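A protein record pairs a chain with a discrete description of its three-dimensional fold. The shape at a given residue is found from the number at the same position. Here is what such a record looks like in full:
>
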Amino acid sequence: MDDLWASIGLHPDQVVRCEVTGHRGRFGVEVSIVKPRSDVAAFVDFVLLTDERRHLTSDEFPPIGSLLDAVTLDIHPNGELRLCARPSSLAGLRVQDGRQR
């Protein structure tokens, strides 16, 4: 698994900045990693966009072009990176050249 992470230039539980590039129906948002730069396909599931008990609907998803901070979770067998953008997951962490500080 470490080889897989190394191949995309990221590591588990890393804070990244991403740009929303699309909405995947009611399931969440597609994003591109902009800091640190990575070309891996990435996705934030709708249940991982907010800490609210009520889940966001697709009409409430961040608009395309929005910037989000998120934490890397895992890599799906299809190679897509799964991210979490919940504020509670980001508490005390911030993006800084791909390193948590």
User: Anything to note?
Assistant: The first helix runs from residue 2 to 8. The mean pLDDT is 89. The CA atoms of residues 41 and 80 lie 5 Å apart.
